[in-house]
């Protein structure tokens, strides 16, 4: 078992060790000295703020960045007028990128007012060479640019940035390394994500993730289980296992282990109350997984199973490697084993070559599966992906029209599906005091539906049986029993 390294015991007169994570602890100690000096100079502590865009992976990465910065002595803040602002970016769709450029203009104005301010950019968008070129050319005020493969190096990078002026750029094309045991600052005391793998090997033809997150790497099961045990010891009730395609977990380990086996071992951890996972690629979802899910009550009855399209021809063009029929058959098998399960999905509208008939196949899947909720996206052309080079891109008006029709139907069904638990009493993990009405608390059912019910802050982090009085569309109003 790894023992935390005490920064006070590190000898900074020695040269930095080469092995990780020791090297980073050395730089945390060194950086802490720099931050301490700066604090004395300014007569006030230094603050930091991290803005996270994109998915759960990025959210978890931001917790790691926060853990390191707090260890270094920066004080956490929500304000972008902090001394160190980091944007952890997403590039899955074009509009995610545009938002970042827009907000950088605003950060520049803040930086002019605070000459000590440092601006850092990291995450998926930084893995695109055109983006970094543009930043180098037109956004010289950015201090630090790093990517998805080297976030563990933050202490080393910040040390450099504090010691020299100008822009530091450190982007790796890919990595086969996984650095464990660095500090993490969790957003919630009672629930946490746990990475089980990094990267993606699927190359769906529209998707940029494999290019910016690199090849698939699975963490060792003993590292994952140990992390979960520690989280549970620290009060965590619910964990979410994270990977772009959790169903292909463990295939490349020296001693291969399936996702279902990992999940079962995690479910065996005492004190852990709930386990979820994201995301499941339909092509790799095994019978073994369905069987394990049906056997362990603490595995949440929820599957996020992105379909992307209902047309077998479009699915083929997307390189998804399943058909409409095989997807529907999979849904039937899941429902037969886990009757109450909530199914959610992602759908892309307007993929190149999508005809009205193809779109109607998607609508048909929506009718047949009846998702509890669905994220619907307008296809966005991502430079470097095979789909971006396809010549039959769909006109904007056509896509918009299909999108509106899909969204209306998806929401209608989601409302009907959500209300099916009305009148039942189910366990809720309380997450927060309600923002609008402080006499209520807000929590989630195991199937991920939100419930508001009378309560107070002392209930946060506990799991309570709640009577689901009334469904209000996508959430419930309940009462304690
Ligand atoms: N690994 C997950 C998804 C990661 S990206 C999976 O395989 O399901 C999250 C969602 O973004 C995808 O499911 C897809 O619906 C959407 N997405 C990805 N690339 C996109 C693009 N170019 N345009 C529109 N939506 C996209
Ligand atoms: Fe993208 Fe497909 Fe990988 Fe998901 S499985 S991240 S959609 S390439
Ligand atoms: Fe976005 Fe990267 Fe996640 S591109 S969706 S933040 S893996």
Automatic annotation (TrEMBL):
GO terms for molecular function: 4 iron, 4 sulfur cluster binding; metal ion binding; tRNA-2-methylthio-N(6)-dimethylallyladenosine(37) synthase activity. It catalyses: N(6)-dimethylallyladenosine(37) in tRNA + (sulfur carrier)-SH + AH2 + 2 S-adenosyl-L-methionine = 2-methylsulfanyl-N(6)-dimethylallyladenosine(37) in tRNA + (sulfur carrier)-H + 5'-deoxyadenosine + L-methionine + A + S-adenosyl-L-homocysteine + 2 H(+). CDD domains: Radical_SAM (cd01335). The keyword Metal-binding applies. Pfam families: Radical_SAM, TRAM, UPF0004. It comes from the Bacteria. It is found in: Cytoplasm. Its EC number is 2.8.4.3. Its main location: cytoplasm. [4Fe-4S] cluster 1 binds at residues 55, 90, 124. Binds 2 [4Fe-4S] clusters. One cluster is coordinated with 3 cysteines and an exchangeable S-adenosyl-L-methionine. [4Fe-4S] cluster 2 binds at residues 200, 204, 207. Its cofactor is [4Fe-4S] cluster. Residues 46-163 form the MTTase N-terminal domain. This is tRNA-2-methylthio-N(6)-dimethylallyladenosine synthase. It comes from Wansuia hejianensis.
């Amino acid at each position: 078992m790894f023992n935390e390294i005490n920064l006070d015991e590190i000898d900074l007169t020695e040269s930095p060790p080469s092995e990780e994570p020791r090297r980073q602890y050395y730089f945390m100690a060194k950086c802490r000295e720099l931050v301490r000096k700066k604090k004395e100079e300014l007569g006030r502590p230094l603050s930091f703020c991290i803005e996270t865009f994109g998915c759960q992976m990025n959210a978890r990465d931001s917790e790691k960045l926060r853990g390191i910065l707090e260890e270094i002595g920066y004080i956490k803040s929500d304000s972008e007028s902090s001394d160190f602002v980091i944007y952890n970016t997403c590039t899955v769709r074009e509009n995610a990128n545009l938002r970042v450029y827009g907000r950088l203009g605003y950060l520049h104005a803040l930086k002019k007012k605070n000459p000590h301010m440092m601006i850092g950019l990291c995450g998926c968008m930084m893995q695109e060479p055109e983006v970094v070129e543009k930043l180098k050319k037109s956004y010289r005020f950015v201090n630090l640019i790093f990517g998805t493969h080297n976030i563990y190096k933050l202490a080393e990078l910040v040390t450099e940035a504090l010691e020299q002026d100008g822009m530091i750029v450190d982007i790796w094309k890919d990595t086969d390394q996984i650095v464990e045991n660095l500090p993490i600052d969790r957003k919630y005391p009672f629930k946490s994500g746990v990475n089980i793998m990094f990267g993606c090997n699927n190359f769906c033809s529209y998707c940029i993730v494999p290019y910016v997150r690199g090849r698939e790497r699975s963490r060792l099961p003993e590292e994952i289980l140990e992390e979960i045990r520690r989280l549970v010891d620290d009060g965590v009730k619910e964990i979410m296992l994270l990977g772009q395609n959790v169903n292909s977990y463990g295939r490349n380990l020296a001693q291969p282990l399936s996702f279902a086996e990992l999940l079962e071992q995690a479910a065996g951890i005492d004190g852990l109350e709930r386990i979820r996972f994201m995301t499941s690629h339909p092509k790799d979802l095994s019978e073994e997984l369905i069987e394990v899910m049906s056997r362990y009550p603490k595995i949440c009855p929820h599957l996020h199973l992105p379909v992307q399209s209902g047309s077998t021809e479009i699915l083929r063009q997307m390189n998804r490697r399943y058909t409409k029929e095989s997807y529907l058959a999979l849904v039937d098998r899941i429902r037969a084993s886990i009757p109450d399960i909530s199914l959610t999905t992602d759908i892309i509208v307007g993929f190149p070559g999508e005809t009205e008939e193809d779109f109607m196949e998607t609508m048909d899947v929506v009718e047949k599966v009846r998702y509890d909720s669905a994220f619907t996206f307008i296809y966005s052309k991502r430079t470097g992906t095979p789909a971006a080079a396809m010549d039959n891109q769909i006109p904007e008006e056509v896509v918009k029209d299909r999108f509106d029709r899909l969204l209306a139907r998806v929401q209608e069904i989601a409302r009907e599906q959500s209300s099916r638990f009305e009148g039942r009493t189910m366990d809720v993990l309380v997450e927060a005091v309600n923002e609008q009405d402080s006499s209520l608390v807000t929590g989630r059912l195991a199937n991920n539906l939100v419930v508001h019910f009378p309560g107070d802050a002392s209930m946060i982090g506990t799991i309570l049986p709640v009577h689901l009085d009334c469904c209000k569309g996508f959430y419930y109003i309940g009462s304690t029993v």
